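[Q] Does anyone have a clean structure-token version of this?
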Amino acid sequence: MELKTVVLLGSFTIFLGILVTSIKIYINFKATQLINRQPVLKTRISTSNQFLLFLRYLSLLCALILCLLSLYKIKSIDVESTKEFESTDILFVVDVSLSMNAIDVKPNRLKRFQDLILRTLPELKGNRIGIIVFAGQSFSFCPMTTDLSAVSDYIQSLGVEMVGTKGTNLAVALERVGKVRKKNQGIQSSVTVIVTDGEDHEKQSLPDLEKEVIVWGIGTEEGGPIEFRDPSTGKGGFVTYDSNLVDSPYGDNVIVSKLNKEYLEFLAEKYNGEYSNISFYPDGSSILIDKVKMMKKNKIQRLEKFKNEDGAHPYLLLSLLFFLFERIFSIGIQKKSPLKMIALLFFLLLFQNRIEAWELDPGGNAVERGVKSYQNQNFSESQKEFSNAKEYIQDDPRLLYNESASAYQLGKYKEAKELSEKILSHPKANSNLKSKANLTLGNIFSKLGQKENALNSYVESLKQNPNQLAAKKNIEHLTKKNQSNLNPSENQKQGNGENSNPSESKPQNDKTNPSKQKQSDIDRMFEPFSNDSILKNKRGGPIDNEKFW
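[A] Here you go.
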């Protein structure tokens, strides 16, 4: 709303107030005269003290006029201010070659890095962060900045298609790191974080790097197929050696990208740095945070320009004072002593900086704040609130579950696993809570690639609560995956009719065929939960198994 419109509305309100006030004072005056002429009407007509009534409405009108005048007295001045702050320069060198789309880490390697660093950013507040990306070539993607929201936007827009030249040339990226460091020669405290799977780097001649270096490996030594999809159409498949795409990740010609652990350890040793694999655990994030906290900070000066608006506060203070007078005169009109009101207001104004808020339920409030932070996907804050609640709420398994849910979302699978196991052994945990804890354990094992442990946990979840639909769907997903992993040659033999008579098969044949034995174990494990029962409820949609108390 424009200032002129506000002024017009304010002026109309004041004019209307003067008109109504004048009418009320006139009516009160005439009623008082009538009572003086006819004393018998005193019990039937109620009037107010004419002088106090006049002062009350005068104070109210003065307060409104001063509020209106304060709009005209605001002065806007351009001000420049130099602020000095301490920070560490953190430069991420991120591999965006096609191999970073390998799915041996869920959902893929690059997405795993994005997820981890976005959760780490709040811990790096106040430090300057930059990003260099590389594949066959490299370029500076995010300039050095302390603006975490901008860094977050850059991280979310990372993709394997952003560098046109194919290949993996780490040497070119590290040369660019050296150029960035030369531009900031006065910066003493800096960390370079190299994020890659280490594939196809062996024959490169790497330049020297100064300052601290951390190497984050991502991927598994067993490897995984590379999935590529067109962002505009969504069509795609798995990359083959002849540069085509196929629908199945199990074809003979599908490229399997593997983590080169030896080379990454060599890289960390060359630059006197530290190596950690961030595929499943956030240990690398903790190493980075600890190193940044221990390093001596750079003192940086920043020029800030802003508008300083001032001049209205004297009028607003006077307006507040007239509003106070209006309340006091109102009490006087009601024929009550205003001394108590004046004393109370004086006490509040005198001791306002000493007034504190007392929480009636600090533990419950902390849980409520934690749940709200979790729903807003601020998982680090929710975990902090749940931890604070433990000071007031002790020995409650529901709080342990809240903590485990936050830890799981933060990728702290080891911590989430320990908390879930505590719930299972807790004497106060009911069957529903144990079912949720087993479901969380199953999700953790699934993230870590431990499928059999995941299946066992999902079964235990269903034993505690047969209506746990999320566990049923996860079982269905894993059992289907196991069936699709059967040896194709074995399926072909079965199709040709070999060993068609069950009585002719011998037990020792199962021992020589581990995959068949494993599949039969899974079938026995899930005999109470057939596919028919699992597929009965298909309309449920996504199930949120992390319900708080």
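[Q] Thanks! Anything notable?
[A] Residues 352-359, 486-549 have pLDDT under 50 and may be disordered.
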